[in-house]
Amino acid sequence: MEDQEHSAWQEALILWFGSHRKEWQLRARPKLRVNVSAEHYQIPDITLVRNEELQDQILTRPPIAVFEILSPDDRVSRLFEKLEQYKRMEIPNIILVEPAGARLHRKYVDGELIPCNEDILRLDRTEAFVNWKDVEALLASS
Questions:
Q1: The Putative restriction endonuclease domain covers which part of the protein (predicted)?
Q2: Global confidence as pTM
Q3: 132-142 pLDDT, tens per residue?
């Protein structure tokens, strides 16, 4: 279940990537259905896709990135199952956003959650990046 903080993070990430959409030829889409395997679909909080993939109603190829924004009611076992499905689909950037507390964001790599300790998170297989300070400034202005 989403709360105000969760949806504010969605909005801030969409605004951040939206401000770079022409430069990077990417779009950030909330709640876009992703076909992670023959029998499973997931709906990430934010999916980052190349412009040419926008004609697909349901993504069947790996997007550039998925962002999962943690909510208080997220269960760890369900979360790791979802992250593993993204990994098996070979999504190059699987990002976990911690909206509360220390706001320690993590990237899921080879079954491990790696802290994003830098202000800039460069996304693999693209020139796109996330500037966490800019995203948080967008949060403060919303």
A1: 4-105
A2: 0.95
A3: 999 999 998 87
Specify which residues 115 forms β-bridges with: 106
Question: Which helix (H) or strand (E) segment is 6 a member of?
Answer: helix 4-18
Beta bridge partners of 68: 96
DSSP class per residue in 52-119: GGTT-SSB-S--SEEEEE--TT--HHHHHHHHHHHHHTT-SEEEEE--STT---EEEETTEEEE--SS
Backbone dihedral angles phi then psi of residue 127, each to the nearest 5 degrees: -85, -5
Class of domain 4-141: alpha beta
The two structure tokens encoding residue 92: 């190059």
How far, in whole angstroms, is CA 53 from its chain's centroid? 16
